[in-house]
Amino acid sequence: MLYSPARFIETDTALIRELIAAHPFATLMSVVEGQPLVSHVPLVADERGWLLGHVAMANPHSAALNEGAEALAIFQGPHCYVSPSWYAEASVPTWNYTAVHVRARLHVLQGDAAQALLDRLTQAFDDPAQPGHMTAAQRARLLPAIHCFALEPLETSAKFKLSQNKSREDQQSILANLGQFEDDNSQGVASLMLRNLAAGFGD
């Protein structure tokens, strides 16, 4: 379960899907006999919101990804350090971040469904105009070596910790300081904080 004070809970489905689409490289977790199994895999949402992915058959985790098994997919969005020097009054250092946890039921994909998954992942991440782009026939030859699956969401929890507990003045100060950094994480956090300010957080 994702710990999140009420002020940091995000329920906007469109925003959650946007984060997943923009940060598809997920941490996939299963628990077998009390022991955690973890893999890092790209997951792409289909029209239903189910998450599609695969692991190598050689990965021990694949044995736990059976039909009907439960798994947890974790997506990490923009995040950055927030210095206590950025507040009007003394405070403590913290980290602003965004994360989505999806508890899901697993469905194994085989045959044409597995082929369609590989085609979809290739379309999502590769450029067919580039030399070396894999053909459908080449992708089909990979199927015996991979374990393909779809994750049917059972519960989705999103935490967007973006200084909503701070005053408008402090949030604007944080934004001014983040403006000094050009990295994607700092700018991503700043963009989401601006959205919150426009919605009235900190008033």
Automatic annotation (TrEMBL):
Pfam families: FMN_bind_2 (PF04299). It comes from the Bacteria. Gene3D superfamilies: Electron Transport, Fmn-binding Protein, Chain A (2.30.110.10). InterPro entries: Split_barrel_FMN-bd, TR_PAI2-type. This is FMN-binding negative transcriptional regulator. It comes from Viridibacterium curvum.
